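Record format v2
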Amino acid sequence: EIVLTQSPGTLSLSPGERATLSCRASQSVSSSYLAWYQQKPGQAPRLLIYGASSRVTGIPDRFSGSGSGTDFTLTISRLEPEDFAVYYCQQYGSSRTFGQGTKVEIK
Amino acid sequence: QVQLQESGPGLVKPSGTLSLTCAVSRGSISSDNWWSWIRQPPGKGLEWIGEIYHSGSTKYNPSLKSRVTISIDKSKNQFSLNLSSVTAADTAVYYCARAPVGTTLWPFDYWGQGTLVTVSS
């Protein structure tokens, strides 16, 4: 089973700042089958990024994904008030596993 | 857009069986998708439980495999989850979701709203 480790656990930032979230896999994620989801309280997760770097239609371009192999990054270039949430990475190339999440909170 | 809706008892007794159904609307369950169950204990992260294809083929999380059965009812356009021998550790919000099948692999693009199941006597 591929274990995903996200860091940091919590990111305290102000609106307008840049957020950099990390997701590290215990073994290589085949074909960059790595996705990022956003979850707000009381809501289901929402898919943001798939294939490590492809943005879902309708997701603002301030969200970007990068990486390959075992190291992946989600970057939010300028935080908007609605971006404060929990973010999960997920690999779907070998069964399916999720990271433990990174909470982006208002500083 | 496809819609998914979970339903089932919100309270299950310890050692009992948790049973949930996910109704699919605005789309066919016989389309090329894996239909999945994911859960989230209160205040914790997401855990993939397993999934089913319309052919009946299933995949399960190894950590839950001995207790999980996922089935599909094409006549009702729904799929179901049975989790046996539940304990308090199975208390969670349970989500159903869809992962498209194609020439490449896909993550979960549509989710249900989730339903809280509490295991308690």
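The interface with chain B takes residues 1, 31, 33, 35, 37, 43-47, 50-51, 56, 88, 90, 92-93, 95-101 of chain A (CB under 8 Å).
The mean pLDDT of chain A is 96.
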